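For the sake of transparency, this paper describes our internal protein records without simplification. The tokens are whole numbers drawn from a learned vocabulary of local backbone shapes. One such record is reproduced below, unchanged from the form in which we store it.

. . .
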Amino acid sequence: MNIMRKSSRARRGSVSALFCVCLATLLLPGCHSGDGVRADSQANAPHVAVVKATRKDLSSTLEIASEFQPFQEINVYAKVSGYIRKLHIDWGTHVKQGQLLAELEIPELEQQVEQDRASAQRSTHDLARAREEVSRAESAYTVAHLAYQRLADVQKTQPNLVAQQEVDEAQGKDQEASASVSAVKASLAAAEQAVVAAKAALAKDEAMYGYSRITAPFDGVVTELSAYTGALLPAGTSANKGDQALCRLSQNDMLRLVIPLPERAVADVQLGETVAVEVSAVNKAFNGKIVRFSDQIDSDTRTMRTEVDVPNPKYSLVPGMYAAVRVPLHTVENALTIPVQAVQASGENRGTVLLVNSSNKIEKREVTLGLESATEAEIVTGLQPNDMVVFGTQSQFKPGQLVSPKMVEPSSKTD
């Protein structure tokens, strides 16, 4: 009996042990199934490009396309008509102010100058002779006047010693000598005026003859040559636009850009402000300076003429090239910013972003927008520094979705 009870207990113990083993077998995989599902879900989560909200100085700019123009450009005309004796320039010649461009042959004007010089010399000799006449007349007057005074004095003291006729004759000679002095002095004045006139005529013709040497009025480049050696160059003194010029001269060491500044930007732009000028033809950026305004809004275009000077000392730029002028408008210091590709506008100064939280899940956030540049948007409210937001299209993600974030660096350049 005892043996049978022991066998029965043994069987029950074996069954119990087997049941425990089976139960453990079933329960152990179940204990780890949750972690495995979560790990598998994270591994299968879609990758998403994200950027961090960061603080930086933000500026908005206005980009306007324009065409380079010479700082100044003129047609160089001859002051006097003549044949080109010698030409010192050609197309593309760089010249300095005062440099000789061409020499004209004007024989009739050269002869006129020689004639004026002879007239001036003759007038000078006439003036010297008139001065001598004045000296002679004054001496004769002095002698005649002394003789008259002596006779007049003797007649007063001794009336019977000198005849009245002698006194009258001496008085007449005195008056005649005085009149002669006045006449020669008038002749002297006329001679002096003749000298002045002769010298003025000489100076005028010499000045005109000086125009036979055509010089550069400023530093520049000969962009067009219209006449050559031996050609007759007419005097460009009339209003006739058909007059032939010697050349066209452009000052290209400083170029100007004329931009139409929109009315809304007028109050934000100041004289002397530095602007960025990008020239695609040479793939370079240059610094320009706003130097002048028209100070008047065009009623048709609602823009104001604004000029930007761009130094060009190496002549790497040429007139006619196109450039993009970036005019800074507003600036906000230490602004919280994200790329504009991470914001979807939803109204005036309002927008939405997709935030990736600490659990790597998507959250939709309403944000208040401030200043916006070509690449960055200011976030006034709705985000904190270092918050990660989805960069790019938002339509493929939903709030609450588990994602695998990947940090990206958006390009700072715009197309």
Observations:
- The two ends are 100 Å apart (CA to CA).
- Residues 1-37 have pLDDT under 50 and may be disordered.
